[in-house]
Specification:
211 residues, alpha/beta, 6 strands, six-stranded mixed beta sheet, 37% helix
């Protein structure tokens, strides 16, 4: 990718590199390719990655840099209230994205009212048009999806949280521990001096300090 690689995680990584005066190339890779490289190569960094039980001992971790919460989103003013999984189960139609973990997870929970599509933009339009009652999406990705369609985040309500996970910068096990702790120190400094909040506010406007 010859263009600039942007995003919340990239800005955090660039700031840490600047503070440590280490400048490595940031390259865009397919997720599976990057994951393989980070598993087997020293001095390799992959971001951002949810820290799960299975992955915990496979990498060294810098962070958390954020929390990824997957919500049942409803349309502002729809009058639909979701206070439990059973409430969500009883809705007419819940939108999911086929390749996302949340879709598999709800199927495992026995949801029979799912309407799925591979494109989150399609499902977002269906939510805004009232064709579905709720859409399952993470609060990290949904604001930018809405924005790309000309909607604001204020037009939707994060009604019920399905799951949450912290996400991190992951280093391969072969990376020197001192380097990883140096990155963690730099991140901690950024959180204390306000730089972290400033970067976060740029990418997630209107998100409070609930995390």
């Amino acid at each position: 990718n010859s263009g600039e690689i942007t995003g919340f995680g990239t800005d955090i990584v660039r700031e840490i590199m600047m503070r440590r005066q280490v400048y490595d190339d940031i390259r865009l890779s397919s997720w599976s390719n990057g994951y393989e490289l980070a598993l087997y190569n020293p001095n390799f960094c992959l971001f951002t990655m949810d820290r799960t039980d299975i992955r915990d001992t496979l990498f060294q971790w810098v962070g958390p840099i954020g929390t990824n919460t997957t919500w049942f989103f409803t349309r502002q003013g729809s009058g639909i209230v979701i206070a439990s999984l059973d409430d969500a189960r009883s809705l007419g139609a819940v939108g999911t994205v086929t390749s996302w973990f949340s879709d598999q997870y709800l199927r495992q929970l026995g949801f029979t009212n799912l309407v799925s599509h591979s494109d989150p933009l399609v499902m977002t339009e269906r939510l805004m048009n009232g064709e579905i009652d709720a859409f399952v999406c993470s609060d990290v990705t949904f604001p930018s999806i809405l924005q790309s369609l000309g909607y604001t985040y204020g037009l939707v309500v994060p009604s019920f949280a399905l799951m949450a996970s912290d996400y991190y910068i992951a280093f391969s096990l072969g990376t020197p521990a001192g380097m990883v702790s140096g990155w963690n120190d730099a991140l901690e400094q950024m959180k204390q001096d306000g730089t972290y909040d400033a970067i976060r506010g740029k990418w997630f406007p209107g998100k409070g300090e609930e995390e």
